[in-house]
Amino acid sequence: MNVPSAKIVFSDIDKKEILKKMDEILTSGYLTLGKYVKDFENKFAEYIGLKYAVGVSSGTSSIEIILRSLKIKDSSVVVPTNTFAATAFAVDHSKNKIIFADCAYDFNLDPDSLNEVITKDTKALILVHIGGNISNNIEEIKEKCEDNKIILIEDAAHAHGSSFKGIKAGAFGYASSFSFYPTKVITSGEGGMILTDDKKLYEKACQFRDQGKESFFSNKIVEMGYNWRMSEIHAVIGIEHLKCLDSFIEDRRRIAEIYNRRLKEIKNVQVLELKEVMKSNYYKYIAVLKKGIDRVSLKKELKKKFNVSLSGEVYDVPLHLQPIFKKVCKTKKGDFPVSEDLCSRQICLPNFATMTNEQANYVIDSLKELLKQY
Q1: Which fold has domain 12-241?
Q2: Is the pTM of this model over 0.85?
Q3: Whole-number Å distance between alpha carbons of 339 and 100
Q4: Rounded to whole angstroms, how far apart are CA atoms 247 and 195?
Q5: CA distance 178 to 57
């Protein structure tokens, strides 16, 4: 049996509808920031439960646009160290100072670490929903931000459709960022989205994404913007995939239930403890290996002997140990011990919408057989 790490799914109906709309777009010549971008924005804002959405070129640009729109230049912004580099890049590119914080054992930001790194010039926190899992401590983190007048920004690049006590990821903070990169639960090919209930931030973000122009049809430059626009073609892909989001999540949860049950058979692998009120989209199914197991060898052997490919980690090296951030942020090994531990021992099991129960059981059987040597 062959089990890939991930799979991008478009049904024949999806493809037919996308091609039909692409033909319309190419015929019209209206290729960017048109009616389909607006439709995608409106539909996604309604799905998350917020008033405004701004379609942009990527999840990376969406975070930078939020920070630029807030006008918090030369301030410190807290970022969990176990995230993708783009989260921290956005802080630096918006001319703010990156402040790393450690994670808890649910892989999300540790509130105690947040207490340790907050200073009087801390203006924002970018909270990352790792693997599609909203923090067990989301309410405490939100309260700390409010008490310290820190703006809470959600990096929900992994978390389309995840929720905590019925509130969807992206609706906890002042603004949120989503990614529609091909590996995500839903995709637009390339693209991102900013969500907020604040009209002023919405208007400012619209200006920043389009070269800082006062409006789409104006040549009056009012901000130091950039070309962060979303094309009509990317938008129609996103619209069709958004229709599938709930069914994709249902399928991913079905596979996760098999993993949750069967991983109890393997003593050398720990399942994440997630609160019942948190409903994950399982963008990543994260498990933690016992100390001493060589993850690199394990992944190679799984592929070689069983044709099972594991997904990429979230993340294999925390940012404070990446060469560029060690240089820029003056960080070193030992600064954030929980992240260093979890990043070195985690694995992400395959999970995608069309994955079968047989494939999921085969993954566990293969992992169980391989781990006997440990």
Answers
A1: Aspartate Aminotransferase; domain 2 (3.40.640)
A2: yes
A3: 11
A4: 22
A5: 11
